[in-house]
What does this fold into?
Amino acid sequence: MIDTINSQKIFGLLKKGSEKKIKIEVLEKATSTNTLLKEAASEKDEGFVLIAGKQTAGRGRLGRSFYSPDDTGLYMSLLLRPSIIPEQSVLITTAAAVSVCDALGKVGVGSTAIKWVNDVFVDDKKVCGILTEGSFNPQNGTLDYVILGVGINVYEPEGGFPPELQSIAGSVFKNKTENLRNTIAAEFLNSFMGYYNTLEKREYYDKYAGKCFVIGKDITIINNDEKTCARALGIDENFGLVAELADGSRLTLNSGEISVRVKT
Ligand code: BTN
It folds into this structure.
């Protein structure tokens, strides 16, 4: 069975209305769809989607790389032109995480969970990463554009994940199904564009908080080389993670450069 990514098929699965705003280009291979779309941003309109069958230099958060082998993943970047200040870009990232869960739900995967701030997990393994990158306009303090990059490990890579990723990364499906990656891409866009149209209302907040498996757990906060033990208490209205330190004091973590490890 093959599951070919095809722009026409994705387009045909978009909700009425969304298809007016979305243009899709599929490449067999890219360095990084986020990098390529950034380079082309000045010539493209909001709603342009670049998808690649594989990435040779896929990028993740905090300067990490994102393993993007051929034929098994969905590597997709969406160009947005929201009127927001940089601090609000977390709304895009978190809406995207919920949209990935929505899209996987549409193809029968109900057991998705979100690791703050934007990793999607299935069966305790990370199956999706999200990288939101903005271009700051110093003249008005807002963002000229945002590139929303989503990478989903739809199937197990041929030969499995590299050893260093085996304990962390997982894939959503074992067997290939025709049109599955097109369906996931379209359902992601359907869901995301709905949330994006009313972004500041945060309509997806309850879904996000409900899926965020970090809440109530003991965590290690990692800020550069500094590690701090804490307990995750909840998610505030700006999607900050409210945590309690050993001395009882509370702090709110914002996505930035901080990462969190859940203690098991
Ligand atoms: C992470 O896990 O830290 C984020 C990974 C984001 C990967 C996606 S794949 C499509 C887009 N292009 C990239 O180079 N990165 C994002």
